[in-house]
């Protein structure tokens, strides 16, 4: 068995138009998977591209139905769509809170449930969620809605892993540290904020999107066939402190 080959597999990546999602879609395709990218702006490139607001339940159902029809099924789901609103908790509006929880946690749950319905008749599958070190720690900067949403992703991953294990559907998550994407522009554009991040980075180097995508490839494929319910940090040592 080629441990990292995905030949014949069909994968859906939410938030796959940019950043970690785009890197993950590329990695899966390079490993042999047929890939559908779901995003508000899915961009151009190889594979199936579907414009979709994943917080819209009806649009999400339609997008998965189209992906399954055109790819010949669904074996892998990568839940990468996400957002953050970095404000002190006292300044966070209800709209801010609902927007972050709605995309990072609620949409992830419904995407996972739809994918699981497609995976069960195929004898199983793999779901990889993008959590965060902020779901396993109090963080460095005020970011309460993001931290709450990612903490929810961490335990939802465990809950779904147990519930769907009998169907051979593995559910895991990755917890990245700060990665240079559109989401982290405010941090990477500020020498002061970046210095605070690096003070919590024992390895002295932060991962790139491709480093996170490599972990996605591992959890999605046969190398991790007996791995479920785990949250894998890719954090340069942040959580080891």
Lay out the secondary structure:
Elements: E1 10-14, H1 19-30, E2 34-39, E3 48-51, H2 57-71, E4 76-79, H3 94-119, E5 125-130, H4 144-164, E6 169-176, H5 185-188, H6 191-198, H7 209-220, E7 231-234
Parallel strand pairs: 1-2, 1-4, 2-3, 4-5, 5-6, 6-7
What would you note in describing this structure?
With 241 residues, the protein is an alpha/beta fold. It has helices spanning 19-30, 57-71, 94-119, 144-164, 185-188, 191-198, 209-220, and strands at residues 10-14, 34-39, 48-51, 76-79, 125-130, 169-176, 231-234. Strands 3-2-1-4-5-6-7 form a seven-stranded parallel β-sheet, with helices on both faces.
Beta-strand residue percentage: 15-25%
How are strands sequenced across the largest beta sheet? Answer: 3-2-1-4-5-6-7
- Which spans have pLDDT < 50 for at least 5 consecutive residues? none
Task: Provide the residue-averaged pLDDT.
Answer: 97
Please tell me what the overall shape is: globular
First CA to last CA: what distance? 37 Å
Total count of helical runs of at least 4 residues: 7
Helix-and-strand structural type: alpha/beta
Instruction: Write down the Rg.
Output: 17 Å
Number of distinct beta strands: 7
Written as H for each helix and E for each strand, in order along the chain, the element string is EHEEHEHEHEHHHE
Q: Give helix % range.
A: 40-55%
How would a textbook summarize the main sheet? 7 strands, parallel
């Amino acid at each position: 068995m080629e441990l990292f080959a995905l030949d014949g597999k069909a994968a859906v990546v939410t938030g796959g138009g940019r950043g970690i999602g785009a890197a993950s879609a590329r990695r899966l395709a390079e490993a042999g998977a047929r890939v559908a990218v779901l995003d508000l702006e899915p961009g151009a490139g190889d594979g199936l591209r579907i414009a979709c607001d994943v917080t819209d339940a009806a649009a999400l159902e339609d997008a998965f139905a189209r992906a399954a029809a055109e790819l010949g099924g669904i074996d892998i789901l990568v839940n990468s769509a996400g957002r953050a609103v970095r404000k002190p908790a006292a300044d966070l509006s209800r709209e801010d809170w609902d927007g972050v929880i709605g995309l990072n946690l609620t949409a992830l749950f419904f995407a996972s449930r739809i994918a699981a319905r497609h995976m069960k008749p195929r004898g199983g599958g793999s779901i990889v969620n993008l959590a965060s070190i902020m779901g396993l720690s109090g963080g460095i900067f005020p970011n309460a809605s993001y931290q709450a949403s990612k903490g929810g992703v961490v335990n939802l991953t465990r809950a779904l892993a147990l519930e769907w294990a009998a169907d051979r559907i593995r559910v895991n998550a990755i917890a990245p540290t700060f990665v240079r994407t559109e989401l982290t522009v405010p941090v990477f554009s500020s020498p002061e904020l970046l210095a605070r991040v690096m003070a919590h980075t024992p390895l002295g180097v932060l991962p790139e999107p491709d480093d996170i995508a490599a972990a996605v490839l591992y959890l999605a494929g046969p190398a991790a066939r007996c791995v479920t319910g785990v949250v894998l940090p890719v954090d340069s040592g942040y959580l080891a402190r």
